[in-house]
Amino acid sequence: MDFQNRLPVALVNPGISLFRTLKYWAILAAGPAVYGCSLGVAAPQEGLPVIDACFVSEAGSVPVQLEVASTAEQRRKGLMGRTSLAPDAGMLFEYREPRDAGHGFWMYNTLIPLDIAYLNRDGVIGSIRQMVPCVSASGSRCPSYPAGVPFIKAVEMNAGFFRKHQLRQGDRLNLRTENCPAR
Fold first, then answer.
1. What secondary structure letter does DSSP report for 124?
2. pLDDT, greater one: 58 or 14
3. All domains of the chain, ordered by start, with CATH?
4. Which end of the chain is more exposed for a tag (fewer CB within 10 A), N or C?
């Protein structure tokens, strides 16, 4: 084995300064960290469908664009790592089977405050909860936000979205925009 090809440049060629060698190794060491940050969890999940939908209340409708998380892995990652979300954007979590009232969401590795609406099979809002980012390095120290009602879908939006648009329990999410009356 040729060890010379694996040694730092300064050890093989004494004419190269130690500072230059240290700079070389620092760049190599920092590369994966910078690369990881640029492609890390802050980016939207790849391959998720985005649908146009609207929340409907007595006051009218509010159009939204929702990323759809329908597999266990997609739901597990959710909006983790995002540093922002467009005002009319969110994530729809879909389950095949209903979840009980004690099932909830948490904010581990989630950087922005969110509101969550828990929906029944017909898209009717059963409850809305406000969730704050969890700064703990351990997920076990992050609070859970249980639905308080059985649900089969949930929608996360920016904090204050539901209050701003006067959306409440009993209002509905329509997944097809042709079912969205003008506001």
1. B
2. 58
3. 3-39 (no CATH), 50-179 (2.60.120.1140)
4. N
Length of the chain: 183
Residue 36 predicted with pLDDT over 70: no
Q: Tokens 């509905």 belong to which residue?
A: 172
Phi, psi torsion values for 86, nearest 5 degrees? -55, 150
Report pLDDT for 59. Answer: 86
C-alpha torsion sign, points 115, 86, 72, 126? positive
> From edge to edge, which strands make up the β-sheet containing 60-69?
125-131, 114-119, 151-158, 89-99, 60-69, 50-57, 172-174
Give SS3 for 13: coil
For residue 55, the cross-strand partners are 62, 173
Q: What is the pLDDT of residues 90-100, one digit of tens each?
A: 999 999 999 99
pLDDT for 148-181, tens place per residue?
Answer: 999 999 999 999 999 999 999 999 999 977 778 7
As given in the structure block, the two tokens for residue 81 are 């790592």
Q: Measuring CA to CA, which residue among 67, 141, 78, 70 is closest to residue 111?
A: 78
pTM of the model: 0.75
pLDDT of residue 45: 83
Which residues are registered as beta bridge partners of 127? 118
